[in-house]
Design goal:
The chain contains 7 helices and 7 strands; from the N terminus they run βααβαββαβαβαβα. The protein is of the alpha/beta class.
């Protein structure tokens, strides 16, 4: 299962006050991983951060809906999306019908959104591979939530954006101590070169 965290234009577009510092490298690696997921029928869970006034340095971008959109190549052909609502309803066996499920969220941690919490908590997958932004924010919160639910978590460190290299690195170190596997995109894709014969979560 590929978990794609907040791959939105204002985080990775190279403009604006909320753009991550290593966006060019991270974007190239995210694209490689998403291509691999599509080719190998790996399902995706994605999140989209809805900006609110409590976010630092982003008041000027709250009304810029175009900047908040997901980057175009982070979508699968068969996807469905859910607004941020205090509801837990989901279609049974939803990943039999869609390759990607996208959840909007009003906070860093997707586990604070009822639908995303239910999906990530109940989903059975042999591995959750995490990419996106931010290493010191939503990525860290997502991985900690998965680990707390006894999921196997792999972090692709060069496909994860950060604001601050030091604090981002500390966040990843904490995840390693909690049981996550840290690797890079090249090593992960080399180890995953065998294509499965059917859909894989």
């Amino acid at each position: 299962m590929l978990v794609d965290i907040d791959t939105q234009r204002h985080f990775f577009g190279g403009r604006g006050v909320v753009c991550v510092r290593n966006h060019r490298l991270v974007l190239a690696n995210i694209l490689r991983v998403i291509k691999w997921a599509r080719l190998n029928h790996v399902r995706m869970i994605s999140t989209v951060q809805v900006l609110t006034p409590h976010w630092p340095n982003c008041n000027s971008q709250i009304s810029d809906l175009e900047a908040q959109r997901k980057i175009s190549y982070t979508f699968c052909k068969r996807y469905t999306s859910f607004d941020a609502e205090d509801r837990t309803d989901l279609l049974p066996q939803i990943l039999d019908y869609y390759d990607q499920v996208i959840f909007e969220k009003r906070c860093f941690d997707p586990f604070e959104e009822p639908r995303a919490d239910r999906m990530l908590s109940e989903l059975e997958a042999r591995e959750f591979v995490v990419v996106g932004a931010l290493a010191e924010g939503a990525v860290k919160a997502t991985a900690l939530g998965l680990l707390a639910r006894h999921k196997k978590v792999t972090m692709l460190t060069d496909a994860i954006g950060y604001y601050n290299r030091r604090t981002g690195g500390v966040g990843l170190s904490i995840l390693r101590e909690r049981g996550a596997t840290l690797t890079d995109t090249h090593s992960f894709l080399d180890a995953s070169y065998v294509q499965p014969t059917g859909p894989v979560a």
